[in-house]
Every structure is written in C-alpha cells, then in structure tokens.
Amino acid sequence: MHELAITESVVDAITDKVGDGPVAAVRLEIGKLSGVVVDSIRFCFEIVAGGTGLEGARLDIDQPSGRAYCRECRREFTLDDPILLCACGSADLDILSGRELRIVSVEVR
Fold this sequence. Notes:
Elements: H1 2-18, E1 23-30, H2 38-49, E2 58-62, E3 66-70, E4 76-79, E5 93-97, E6 101-108
Parallel strand pairs: 1-2
Antiparallel strand pairs: 1-6, 3-4, 3-5
Helix pairs in contact: 1-2
C-alpha cells in the first residue's frame, strides 16, 4: 500500500514546516490519473496523524481530472479514467495534467 508511505510523507512535510502546533485542516490535490487511492489516503491520514499536531485535522482532497493530447487525431480532451485511450482509439497520448499530488494548504489553529 503505497498510500501509507505517501501519507507519512505528507504528514512529515507538514510537521517539518509548521512544527508540532495544532493543525485545523489540510487540503491536498490528488489528480485522477495519479494512481493514488483517495479513500486509502483518508484512512491512513487518521492513523499517521495520531500523536502529531495534525491529529483531528480535517482532510480535504481535490481530485482534478486529467487532460491529454492525442498525437493521432490532434485533439485535447479530459480523462477521468487511468485507461489512457482517445475516443479515436489511439493510445499515443501526451498526458498534460491529472497526475498531481501536492499539499495545497495547511490551516493552523
């Protein structure tokens, strides 16, 4: 479960920046093409945040859709599924967005 390692890294990054002070909320952006299971991140966050300043913090997660460009038909389109195919049937795509995994904001109490 790589979501546990990801969540540990998120909590470590936040505590490195804000210390052990109480955190009210954390907002993450996890793209729909990132391969990260958002429900697993939520579950792991409660466990990993325990005993830190993030314990009890609200976790908000935005999941932006992916965008791709098809080299075959030269069309740009939205992707919500990790199956990377254009409507024309081509898999020759450039992924433009949707693989993001970032801490957007931290609200300190």
